[in-house]
Each structure stands twice: as structure tokens, then as C-alpha cells.
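Good morning N.,

You mentioned wanting to compare the apo and holo forms, so I went ahead and generated the holo version with 1-deoxynojirimycin. This is what I fed in:
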Amino acid sequence: MQRIPRALAIAIVLACPILHAPALHSQDFKKQVIYQVVTDRFYDGDTTNDNPAESPGLFDSTHTNWQAYWGGDLAGIQQQLSYIKGMGATAIWVSPVVNNENLNCTSSGISAPYHGYWARDFMNIEEHFGDNTNSFTAFNSLVTAMHADNMKIIVDEANNHSNPDNCGEMGSLYNNGTFMAAANNDPNGYFHHNPDISNYNDRYQLQYYTLEDLTDLNQENATIDAYLKSAASQLQSHSVDAFRLDAVKDVTWGWEYSFANSVYNNAPSFLFGEWDQTNTSDPLYPDSYKFANNSGISLLDFPLNTAIRDVFASNNNFSEIDSTINTENANFTYPNDLVTFFDSQDESRLLTINDNQNRLQEAMAFLLTGRGVPIVFYGDEQYLFNNTNGGNDPYNRVWMSSFSTSTNAYKIITKLAALRAANDAVGYGAWKQRWINNDVYIYERQFFNDVVLVAINKNDTTSYPVSGLDTALPAGTYADYLSGLQSGNSLTVTAGSGGNNPANNYTIAPHSVSVWQYQVNATTPEVGSIGPRIGQPGMTVTIAGDGFGSTTGSVLFGTTAATIKSWSNTSVTFTVPSVTNGAYNVQLRNSGGTATNTIAFTVLTAKLIPVTLTVDNANPTNTGDYIYVTGNTVELGNWGTTFQTAIGPMLDPNYPNWFLNVSLPAGQTVQFKFIDIQANGNVIWENGSNHMYTVPTSGTGSLTVNWQY
Ligand code: NOJ
Ligand code: NOJ
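and this is what came out, ligand included:
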């Protein structure tokens, strides 16, 4: 094994950041740092759009009415790009940019869609954020500037709904200015017309009922299916790199597979969805990782969000974080693609729970060295918060009143963003707890020979002796990568170069974070990422990592080689070969034929079409039993008969009839059966021969059959 001495490795990193700059593919965000901006609350770059003619009277220049527009806009983000880039963020998640509800939604005061989640027209840009013609001009300008700075733009996309059904425009939806429907005027069935969701553990209610009065789009309607997919496609044509998908738990789950496939067919992208849940004991937690593992849509890491807030703000024990990560790492196929955060537009800020800047900085250091793609919520680096009404929405959506680059939080983010870019262990590495007590957490990230060891003591006053610490760092003395910014120290590893090397005993200081790292350039292929993770033959896919060599090698699906489109030492792009649909462990070989590891990829049969399958008069079920569909392609679970492998559970608002929207391969004749998976795991198959269905090549499909007794 060739090793670069640590001092030299650090010198190389410092001297030539370009050499180690992240690959920055839109298919792979693992080495990136996302900065989340609520556009209206960030910076007013264009005062001419503050009170636009299309929707006058919704603006409050005094920033005292928290439900009004305050003036932030796309031009403002562009004017603050050097501030954001200087922090080390490589991507910006902007709140929804589309044209929103124009009318006031309250009779007393102002209730305006400054947050962006009340769309009226998905095909153009909100006048408060761009200009009064709803043009893409300001948006294009921002994206061009960001791309020139090698930054990625993530747009928030809310496929679940238009705007409220009980005020203002009453849910009105437009297609680039042409009226389509409203909650009270919907002859073509573009919306569901059901009550508000009351049981957030009920799969049918979640997908088909109304989320907090927001007029619920019917994704199975062919017009709405095409509308939502072309809205995303249009944003991609304006060079959007990735999407944060709003409320994915409330949108028709099966349809979302086809949405993801549509996005990936257009261009390389990264998708992550808001599957709101508290922790890994949530009743629908198994549905969440089934969705993430099979849809190609990664998720915001809500269980870890809870654990970080509990531990750093509410002073719970570190075991809560440790067990959450271990559980999720066992359940998610791609845990490093989970998108991690501790603050957001939907919860009180950490500093509201505990006004302790050290704790915020420790949580930030944890997030940026932790597993998953980290999000910094705008303003946290300036310690902004407002405690009115418990600091909850809207008081968490503070005005960005300062842009100082000298706060400790800003500096810590800058340092650790550079580490994430430079050392593959952070983005691609495994997770290992090395030492833990209620206040201290020492964890290690490792990707082949790259190692990052992080030690946190969250106690504000107590130090602890640390003894018996082992690490994969080779023998040597390691300076704190944070240079003491959070009271860190150096560490000496006394012997060894294998996986368990003893470190000297030391005392961990109060409210401290130390980061020690070791990095080598790979000499054989080390695969850390694949994106997208699912697709049909012909789709463009990128594998990232290190040590691929400069000469083209091969990428194998079983024994079939993919056609290579580009090859570099850290990134290889290819098209999915024509192989049988199913799960593959893809192998990348260098030009000498050497491979080291494989990475999971799902080959679809063909592009996906949403189809609603209904089985009437199904086998009677008892509590805890559910009907599923299983069939002869990967899209139908390849005859799987368990919760995680069959397709479902189906939904039974009309029991004993069950239905489910499933994304199926276009133009293919598929075979399937309905099964009853009982609470104890027993499986009852329907009789007779397999059902057959030829999937349409475009639009949407549906089929209703009787259970075969
Ligand atoms: C979740 C978003 O994060 C939240 O801010 C929004 O209000 C709802 N979805 C509805 O779109
Ligand atoms: C077993 C089922 O009993 C049968 O009906 C189905 O066709 C096959 N699985 C598919 O392999």
C-alpha cells in the first residue's frame, strides 16, 4: 500500500485545492454541502418586484408581518453568491420558485405564499421572486452565475397540491396562464376532493386526502401526470441540477417512481424527498426506506433530524444519534445519499430550543462530518432565531439580517466543507462508533484508506478522560483539522497501520470538537457512488470514487459491459446496457482489469408509466393483513412475497376491493398476481393463471380485475 505522509498529504490539499475539488456531478451530492434558502427572507436584490402589479398588497417592508412577502428574491441570492460560496456550500436549495397564489388568504391582515408552497402555475416564475411578466430572466441569471461558480441549484418542487381550497384563488391551477381547474371548478378530475388528512399513519389518507387545505392534485389523471412531469422538465431545460420534492409521503407513491424516471430520462439529476417522520419507530418507517430504496428518490433524514436536535439542543444522550444512524444504515441501501439537517423552514431553530452557540457549532460540525448530504439552513451561520410562538413557523423564517464571514459557525462550515470535498471518507465512507458516553461521541468515517475521526464533547463544563480509543488512522500525530476553532486538540496514534490502531489517552475538553483526518490517493478503483441508482437500458449513469485510472477500463452488469461515455480517475459516465431487468452489483474495472468493490443498481425493463391496478372482491383479510401485487419484472417485485419485496400494501377505501398505482415498464406485457400477506407473514396466492397487461407507451394506464378464487 502506497501512503503519502500525512504532512505532505495536507500540504497537497492546501496547495492545490483544484486537484481535490469535488466531482460536483448532479447525480452525486455526497461530497457537496447544501445551503437552504427561503428566497423571500434572504436578500432583496431587486426592489422593483417587491409589490408587483399581479399580486399587490402582499408585501411588508417593515418585516413585522411574518405572513407577508418581505422582498427577498432570486436576484438577491445571486448578489450574495460569494458569501454562500465562501462558506463552502456547493449547492443552494431555493424554496419553490413557481408562480404562486395571487390573492390574500385572510380577511384580517396578510396571509401570502412568501414560502412558495402555494402554486397557481407550475410553468412560470413567481413575480415577487423574478419579474412582473413571470419570466425566467432572473432565474436564468442566477443559475448561470451559480454554474460559473461551479455550484448546483436545487429547486423545491411540490407535486402534491396547488394552493388552499378555502381562500384566495381556491386552488386555481394554470398552465402557463391558461386556466385548468380550481377546487370548486374541476370538471376533468384534476384534483382529489377528499377531506383533510386526519390520520397521518393511514396510507390511503396520506396519498389521497388533502394536506392542510392544500388542493390535492390527482397524479393519476393523464393531464396532471403530463403537467407535473413537463414542469420539472422545463426547469431542467433551465439547467436545474436537482429537486427537493415536497411532501413525497402525501403524493401518490407509485406515481413518484415514474416522476423520478422521467426526470432521470431528461438529464442527470439528484432527487430527495420530504418524508416527514419522527424516528425509526414511526409506523411507516419501513415504507420510507422501501420508497427510498426502490424509487430512485433519496429522502431528507427526519429520524436523524430528531436525534440531532434531541442530543445537541435538549441534551439527550449520544446513544440516540448512534442508534438512529446504525438502524438507518442497515435499512437504507444508499445511506450516504440521505440528506441531513437539524433546522428547516418547518421547525423551530436549534437556538430556540437551546440558546447555546457552542451547541449549534457542535451540531454543525457533526452534520458536516456525518453520514449523508448536509444542509445548512440559512441564518444558522449567523446564529439567527426568533422565539415568538416557540420559534415555530413562521418565526423560524427569519430575515437574513447579517452576512458576516467571521462568525465561528461560518468558519467551521468553511473548513468542514473543504474536508468533505477533499477526503472521500466523509461523503462515501462507512460509519463506526469508536467511543461513547452520554456527552462524548467519537466516530469514524472510513472509505478504503481514507479516514476521518471526529471527537465531540457536548458538555459545557465537564472534561472526560478518553482511554482505549482505537482508530483506523495509521500511527502518527494528527493536528485538529478545525485548528482549535471549537477547542479541539491533536491526537497521537501510537502504532499500527491496520483497522484498529491504539491512540494515546487524552482528556477531551468541554464543548469541543476535534477532527483528525488521513487521506491517500487510490491506486485501484474505489467506487463510492452511483447516480441515478435505477434506470432502464440506455439511461446515462455516473459512478464516482477514486483510483479509476486515466485510461478507460470497463463497467460490468454481470458479464455485460456498459458503453462508456467518459472516463476519469474519479468519475465514469456510461449508459445502462441491455440486460435483463433486476438488481445488479455493478463492477468498475480499471484498464488493467482490476476491480475492488461493487455498487448496487436496479435495471428497469423500460421507462416507467403510472398504472392503477384494482383487484375487486379480494380474499377477505383480518387486521394486519394486506393485499399486494407481485409479478414478473423488477417493477412488479419479481414475484417477491414480503413487505419489502412485493408491491404494496394496496389500498382499500372500498374494501374488499383494493387498488394501487404502480409504475410499470412502457410497452411491455407484464404478468402478475395479487397476494394476501397476512400479519404473520403467511402468503395466500389467488388461484388461476397470471394476470396479463400490456402497459401503454405513454400517458397513464389502469386495469381492474377480480380476485381469482
Ligand atoms: C412541507 C414544506 O416543507 C412546508 O414548508 C410546506 O408548507 C408544506 N410541505 C406544504 O407544501
Ligand atoms: C407462484 C404462484 O403460485 C403462481 O401463481 C405464479 O404464477 C408463480 N408464483 C410465478 O412464478
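Residues 1-23 have pLDDT under 50 and may be disordered.

Happy to go through it together on a call whenever suits you.

Best,
F.
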